[in-house]
Design goal:
transmembrane helix; membrane; transmembrane; 266 residues; globular; UstE-like
């Protein structure tokens, strides 16, 4: 079905495309002074590279089409969400902080930061490549599990984002903490369901002898969410802006996996 390429060629082409995309975004931020555009490009890049990996692989044709659709839909939702949040708005605090801290060296350091994002585009498209190399006919029990996990993951992220957005629209107290819907059971349900989504490709890759390598992406993502770029800086900012209200939320609500809230003991 269509052009089929070896995986080294796929990775080389995907890497070149990701570098070109992020270099273009870096040039754009030189003019706009809004480095947040890297997030929009990251989501779009994974979708494009992932779909390319799927459609040019050597596996089952129906599986390839399904994977291209899954990563494409994931990317479309995320890219649209980030585009509306970033484009036309002031630069987000984390990038403004980097710009201030890096001073006169900011553009050089941002260039390499953008190239690091190009590398992660390929890393996050990697599970799709492994799954698309599977020659198992689509429709096995593990394929069904994979699609269910994908639906739960993407649906959970979309729902948590919608609940948070509605809370922000309807709450006048800027120091209030969102504890509605999924946010009652997890302080970061969007992170949890995003992480869950990436396990779907592991199930879809089972016909590939190297299927276990699809776990690299969600495992690395878990580390960064829990210890590096996810929860720690997000909660530091939340405490700075919401103070004791957020500290009380931390004491009663699971940080990641949704679970029933605890009763705070006075």
């Amino acid at each position: 079905m269509g052009v089929e390429l070896s995986w080294p060629v796929q990775i080389a082409i995907g890497s070149a495309a990701a570098v070109a995309l992020m270099t273009t975004m870096w040039l754009i931020q030189l003019r706009t002074k809004n480095a947040g555009i890297v997030d929009v490009a990251w989501g779009a890049g994974i979708g494009v590279v992932g779909a390319f990996f799927a459609l040019t692989s050597t596996g089952d044709g129906n599986r390839k089409l399904l994977l291209a659709a899954l990563i494409g839909l994931w990317s479309l939702r995320l890219t649209t969400y980030l585009f509306l949040r970033v484009v036309g708005h002031a630069e987000e605090g984390r990038y403004a902080t980097l710009r201030r801290d890096w001073g006169a060296d900011v553009n050089r350091r941002l260039f390499w930061f953008f190239q690091l994002q190009a590398a992660t585009v390929v890393l996050f498209a990697w599970p799709v490549l492994l799954a698309a190399q599977s020659e198992w006919p689509l429709g096995s029990f593990t394929d069904i599990i994979g699609v269910i996990v994908w639906l739960l993951g993407v649906g959970g992220v979309a729902l948590s984002d919608a609940q948070l957005a509605r809370f922000k629209r309807t709450t006048t107290d800027r120091r209030a903490v969102c504890q509605v819907g999924l946010w009652r059971y997890s302080r970061h349900p969007n992170y949890f369901f995003e992480w869950l989504h990436w396990w779907s490709y592991l199930f879809l890759a089972l016909g590939n002898p190297w299927w276990l390598l699809a776990a690299i992406t969600p495992l690395l993502l878990l580390y960064f969410l829990l210890y590096v770029t996810g929860i720690p800086p997000t909660e530091a900012q939340a405490i700075a802006s919401r103070g004791e209200a957020y500290k009380a939320y931390q004491r009663t609500t699971s940080s990641f996996v949704p679970w029933f809230p605890q009763r705070e003991i006075n």
